[in-house]
C-alpha cells in the first residue's frame, strides 16, 4: 500500500496544510500510522477528505476542540474519527514527554 499512487497522494495532501499542526499530525498519521485495514477505497476517501476539509475544521478535530461526529454530513466521519483518535494519542504523548 505504501508504494501505491493513492498513498503518495495522501502524503502530498497531508503535507499541504495551511496550519503546521495539521500538517505534522496528519502527515505522521498517513506515513506511519495509517490503519492497516484501510482498503484502496478507504485511501480514495481519505484523499477526498483531505481535499475537501477546511484547515480550521481539521485543526478543531486534531486539537480536541470538536469531535468528528460534529461534522456528520459534511465530511467522512469514519475517517475523521481515525484522525481524531490518532491526534489524541499524539497530544498525550507530547504531554508526557514534556
TrEMBL record:
Domain of life: Bacteria
Keywords assigned: Chaperone
InterPro entries, A to Z: SDH, SDH_sf
Family designation: Belongs to the SdhE FAD assembly factor family.
The protein, known as: FAD assembly factor SdhE
Source organism: Geovibrio thiophilus
Upper classification of the organism: Bacteria, Pseudomonadati, Deferribacterota, Deferribacteres, Deferribacterales
